[in-house]
TrEMBL record, chain A:
TM regions (residue ranges): 20-39, 78-101, 107-128, 165-187, 193-216
Membrane topology: Multi-pass membrane protein
Gene that this polypeptide is encoded by: atpB
Organism of derivation: Arenibacter antarcticus
Lineage top rank: taxon: Bacteria
HAMAP family: ATP_synth_a_bact
Matching CDD domains: ATP-synt_Fo_a_6
Job of this protein: Key component of the proton channel; it plays a direct role in the translocation of protons across the membrane.
Record's subcellular location: Cell membrane; Membrane
UniProt entry tagged with the keyword Plastid: no
Family membership: Belongs to the ATPase A chain family.
Entry keywords, A to Z: ATP synthesis, Cell membrane, CF(0), Hydrogen ion transport, Ion transport, Membrane, Transmembrane, Transmembrane helix, Transport
Main subcellular location of this protein, as a coarse class: membrane
Protein known as: ATP synthase subunit a
Automatic annotation (TrEMBL), chain B:
Gene that this polypeptide is encoded by: atpE
Residues the record marks as site: Reversibly protonated during proton transport: 63
Subcellular location: Cell membrane; Membrane
Job description of the protein: Key component of the F(0) channel; it plays a direct role in translocation across the membrane. A homomeric c-ring of between 10-14 subunits forms the central stalk rotor element with the F(1) delta and epsilon subunits. F(1)F(0) ATP synthase produces ATP from ADP in the presence of a proton or sodium gradient. F-type ATPases consist of two structural domains, F(1) containing the extramembraneous catalytic core and F(0) containing the membrane proton channel, linked together by a central stalk and a peripheral stalk. During catalysis, ATP synthesis in the catalytic domain of F(1) is coupled via a rotary mechanism of the central stalk subunits to proton translocation.
NCBIfam families according to UniProt: alt_F1F0_F0_C, ATP_synt_c, PRK13468.1
Stated name of the protein: ATP synthase subunit c
Membership in a protein family: Belongs to the ATPase C chain family.
Domain of life: Bacteria
Pfam family, one: ATP-synt_C
Sorted UniProt keywords: ATP synthesis, Cell membrane, CF(0), Hydrogen ion transport, Ion transport, Lipid-binding, Membrane, Transmembrane, Transmembrane helix, Transport
Keyword Cell division: no
InterPro entries noted in UniProt: Alt_ATP_synth_F0_Csu, ATP_synth_csu_bac/chlpt, ATP_synth_F0_csu, ATPase_proteolipid_c-like_dom, F/V-ATP_Csub_sf
Amino acid sequence: MRISPDQMIFWEYGSINLNLTIVTTWVLMILLAMGARLITRNLKSEIKSTRWQNVLEMLVIMIRDQIKEVGLNKPEKYMAFIGTLFLFIAVSNLLMIVPWYEPPTASLSTTVALAICVFIAVPVFGIAEGGIKGYLRSYLQPNFIMLPFNIISELSRTLALAIRLFGNIMSGGLIASVLLSIAPFLFPIIMSALGMLTGMIQAYIFAILATVYIAAATKDVKVKNDKNLKIVQHG
Amino acid sequence: MDNITIIAVTSIITAGFTTGIGTMMPAIGEGRAVSKALDSIAQQPDAAPTITRTLFVGLAMIESTAIYCFVLSMILIFANPFWNHFLG
């Protein structure tokens, strides 16, 4: 019984081996990049545009509005990162209806990689917003006693991000395959539909949590700077 | 009852209990969260997007505990580290 697509070796040469996860991830990446390239090759600003351009505009506007609602005032700065996360996870989970396709998000390596991207992106955006000092001061948020707990929470939420996505998608695939071996085909269809719904919700949650973390890192900085400004003004 | 049998019995029983209890509690929590969110949306339909987003973030947090339990039971059954210790 295979738990993750990592265990299916695709191609082997000496000590280098390509597993299904890597191959599927690259195929998805090429699909997304080529799709974006094809659609944005001839954009029109008239009333009558192509239907694909409409789809893309809807997606971009939706992502931008969601980022803005969380409280990031300059969504264009973060849209590339968060939108890419959302689109990749959503497409990877939606393609579960394709037979013999295994979502790369059902392997722990992919989800850990995505979570590490968020883990690195949060301090980068925080430092870009308020400087190194301001960002590091956000770890002493209520008072300096909370410093170890803040560091622990930083690590544990990254782990939770990875395990959540992996567990949800993996359990969906596992349940579908177990049911396929014991039940006729109607019941697994319902379960895979449920799995697709879960997959979309997980993509949304991953993106929105990344946004919330980035917003927290940048907002703490702002609040601190405002306080310092006030102190400077009053003092 | 040799060692492997004992390990198998404990692993399977523990996995069952882990999944059982570890899905019961988060289910109660999620149910309470959703009912509260529905109440507040009914009272304040204008704040629905904010409430929904916060609800989803909170549900993700609650659900991750259930997922931990699930992953743990999977490890116990499919990737138990003690098997190799006694088989090898």
